[in-house]
Write a structure and sequence with these properties.
Blueprint lengths: L1 H17 L6 H15 L20 E4 L2 E4 L7 E2 H5 L9 E8 L2 E9 L8 H6 L5 E3 L4 E5 L2 E10 L7 E9 L2 E9 L4 H11 L4
Antiparallel strand pairs: 1-2, 3-4, 4-5, 5-10, 6-8, 7-8, 8-9, 9-10
């Protein structure tokens, strides 16, 4: 009889343990609170304060892995993209221009590894149809750049008969710069200001 009682007690305990359990409301509330707390977003830290730029950004163009100065009332645009939207300027080569009523500036660049004499860039930027060299080639040292500059005259626009063209190399690329101006000596001053901010 003892064995039967133990057997029935074991069966009863087994049946009770396998049956449906009534959830404890306190446990359900605890689990719901924990899930709600886990879903709350964590706080986002404040961003660090901005680092001041080493040079003023007014009158500075920076793109294509170089920076160059320009008058603050002008902005460069991508001439290559204007000519062919499928072939805009790139780091390897490009063509920019900026203009206002009394000034036009152009900048060309192209990949030129192992080139130390950038004078071939003068032939690219000086338009033989409207520009003429007007003086001697002047080698300049601007910062650590060896620059070649030549004054030009132009028939491109009657109000801008003067100007200058320049070429230099930096970082495996050759650069050329040209300006059309109303006065003869203005282009060289503009070039000096542009190259003071030049980085590549």
């Amino acid at each position: 009889m003892k064995r039967v009682t133990i057997f029935l007690l074991a069966c009863t305990l087994f049946t009770v343990s396998c049956g449906p359990k009534t959830p404890n409301p306190n446990e359900q509330i605890f689990i719901a609170v924990q899930q709600t707390l886990a879903a709350i977003p964590t706080y986002t830290p404040y961003p660090p304060p901005p680092i001041p730029t080493p040079v003023p950004l007014t009158g500075l163009f920076c793109e294509y892995q170089f920076c160059i100065g320009h008058p603050s009332d002008m902005a460069f645009f991508d001439v290559s993209a204007q000519r062919n939207p499928l072939a805009p300027s790139t780091t390897a080569q490009g063509f920019l221009a900026a203009y206002n009523a009394s000034l036009v500036i152009q900048v060309l660049w192209q990949s030129a590894p192992d080139i130390s004499d950038p004078q071939f860039m003068l032939d690219l930027i000086i338009d033989k149809n409207v520009d003429a060299r007007n003086g001697n080639l002047d080698p300049l040292l601007v910062g650590d750049l060896n620059v070649f500059y030549i004054p030009i005259t132009s028939t491109a626009a009657s109000i801008l008969p003067y100007g200058g063209a320049s070429a230099w190399t930096c970082g495996g690329r050759a650069f050329a710069w040209k300006a059309y101006t109303p006065q003869p000596d203005l282009a060289k001053n503009l070039l000096d200001e542009a190259l003071k901010k030049f980085r590549c």
